[in-house]
Structures are given as structure tokens and as C-alpha cells.
Design a protein that fits this description.
Length: 94
């Protein structure tokens, strides 16, 4: 059951009119309704994920994605070697 409400003019109006109606609607849901709501949310999330994957595949080719991954990975390794191993090897351990 969907209810539309006009924005309340004051907090008192909200507390007296809209809030009790919302609470009654929430209290009237049954366990079967809750299961249906959860399933509808799951289906919506699955559909959203498939749409995102399709749109991503349209925009970027796999070869470009893998190339960028390789560049980031190799640059990360080179930066770690440059800032970690090389300075450590220059200093003598006593």
C-alpha cells in the first residue's frame, strides 16, 4: 500500500498525522510480505548488476582493461622496489 503525503508544515503536524499512519503500515506487514520484499530487493540488485556489467562492456574492451591493470600493477612493483629495496641495500647493516 503506497501512501503519498504532502510535506508537513511543522514537526507537530508530522508527529500527529503522518507518523502514526506510517507506523500502522509497517505493523501490518506479514512475514510473507517481508519475504516478498526481500526477494524483490534481491532481484532489483541482480538486475542492476547485470545492467552495470553490460554498460561497462559496451564502453571498455577487455584488452584495454587488462592493459591498464598490467600498467598499474607493474608501476606499483617498480615504485615499491625504488622506495624499499634500493634504499635499504645502500645502507650497511651493523
Amino acid at each position: 500500500m503506497t501512501q503519498l503525503a504532502v510535506a508537513p508544515a511543522s514537526t507537530t503536524e508530522f508527529a500527529e498525522n503522518i507518523l502514526p499512519t506510517s507506523i500502522r503500515v509497517i505493523k501490518q506487514t506479514t512475514p510473507e510480505d517481508e519475504q516478498l520484499i526481500k526477494r524483490a530487493i534481491e532481484l532489483a540488485e541482480e538486475e542492476e548488476n547485470t545492467i552495470i556489467q553490460k554498460e561497462f562492456a559496451k564502453e571498455y574492451k577487455k584488452s584495454v582493461v587488462y592493459s591498464m591493470f598490467a600498467v598499474v600493477f607493474l608501476s606499483n612493483i617498480l615504485i615499491n622496489v625504488d622506495h624499499g629495496s634500493l634504499p635499504g641495500c645502500r645502507e650497511k647493516i651493523e
